[in-house]
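CO-FOLDING WORKSHEET

Operator: S.A.
Ligand of interest: magnesium ion
Run index: 327
Mode: holo prediction, single chain
Checklist:
[x] sequence pasted
[x] SMILES validated
[ ] output reviewed
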Amino acid sequence: MHPATIAVISPLSNQLLDLGQRLKQIPNLGEVITIHGDLQNLPELQDPPDVVIAADPFEEHRSMEALARFGIRYPRTLLVVYSRQNSAEFLMQAMRSGVREVISPEASDALLVETMRRLQSQHHPSKDKEGTVMSFISCKGGGGATFLATNLAYALAAQHEQQVAVIDLNLQYGDAALFVSDQKPSTHLGELSQNTRHLDASLLSAAMLPVLPNFGLLASPEIPALATDIQASQIGTIIRLARSQYDFVILDIGRGLDKVGLTALELSDQMYPVLQNTIPYLRDGKRLVDLLQTIGFASEKIFPVVNRHDRESEITIQHLEKALAKK
Ligand SMILES: Nc1ncnc2c1ncn2[C@@H]1O[C@H](COP(=O)(O)OP(=O)(O)OP(=O)(O)O)[C@@H](O)[C@H]1O
Ligand SMILES: [Mg+2]
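OUTPUT RECEIVED:
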């Protein structure tokens, strides 16, 4: 088991001291640091700890919100609540905020050790991830690229507990945020790309619209004019950083095979051209798949997807497979 860095945060000095002491007595746990304060007023953590134990009565709505924000801001930190609260409603809310464990101040030493060992086994030393980058490309407007990209992301996060990022690369008319959230993004790709010199993991995660604690979406600029300054190299920097922080980075690159789209494809492990089984899609799907291979992308990375399959259509899956020379 790997030693971990554990931060205890509490507004109560006695509690902080006591819990800090109890943790320090556990052999081979790792480094224990204590922070006097609360989650709501936490200063920026330069080097996020592996585990954060937040001690707070959690009686106010605001402290639950602070928990949820913390989870989004530091997606790789295991979050633990130290509180007497144990109502079903509280536990459900904690779980939704990405909390891994709830420890009661009355827990015995044995129970505390058992819980800490469980957390230790979930923590993997901070080797940067090498997430999978998947891009969804519309062969034709309205095929469902955004629908599939966002729904796949949601399923990976909600059902498979993966850390997922969606980046909306439809720079002119991006709409991916609308598919998964009714919140308005507070920032967007245009602003972030002006800041790539200062870009780091916490700036990236703060720029994401939180959909779930483990699913963030980087929206495209709301006004097309704000997209004109975005450089392909800046997008490359953002995708590479996202890949080091998330298990899956899902790119909605719409119809654009411009410089930004091509950079995104170069960084993609898998490409999913989205089509439907109708004549116009057959034609444009073939064009797109041929073009991708002519540019030099390996055929094994290209996986055409038929969306909204229509059994009645005269164009069958076999026709599409033959035309595209692909499964
Ligand atoms: N499998 C599906 N089931 C139900 N609705 C779908 C499905 N796929 C797409 N849609 C709906 O069809 C519409 C067009 O889909 P979407 O916006 O994802 O297409 P797109 O390929 O991203 O288009 P664009 O090129 O304009 O970005 C949306 O309203 C979407 O909700
Ligand atoms: Mg779209």
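REVIEW:
Residues 47 and 202 are 10 Å apart (CA to CA).
The chain has a mean pLDDT of 90.
[x] output reviewed
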